[in-house]
Amino acid sequence: MRGVALQAMISGVARWPSHREKRWIDKSMGRYRLDRVYARRLIESGMTRETAVARAATDRGAAVRRLAVIALLTDEGPPGNFDEIARLLRDDPNTALREWTALAIERRRSAVT
What is the spatial distance between Cα 20 and Cα 34, in angstroms, rounded to a whole number? Predict the structure, then answer.
């Protein structure tokens, strides 16, 4: 639940499953599948994106810390406190998160030069 809340604060968008929609696989044979459709709404919170990413980076759950690493890698631009967050995640106990953080740091270095 913390991950869902922080993801909404980081992205500024809350989304939830609203209904299922029929998608035809083979209409002549009557074959279809039901795809989930998500509703979304822009949200405003008292927390800045940088604060939300920093909070995600220090969470005890690896899935929540993963949100912070994704925020470092996304096209929305790295948060203003990139170096602080990268320092926290560089020594993460989760191997995948450490590797993703190294990738984010490398991308930032190559973008600067």
Answer: 6
Q: Can you tell me the distance from the alpha carbon of 75 to that of 54, in angstroms, rounded to the nearest whole number?
A: 18
Residue position matching structure tokens 């925020």: 71
Grade residue 33 by pLDDT with cuts at 50, 70 and 90: very high
Which amino acid is it at 6?
L
| 28-60 as b/e: b if 16+ CB within 10 A | eeeeeeeeeeeeeeeeeeeeebbebbbbbbebe
pLDDT digits (tens, 9 = 90+) for 50-106: 888 888 888 999 999 999 899 888 866 666 778 888 888 898 899 999 999 999 888
Tokens, residue 97:
């998160």
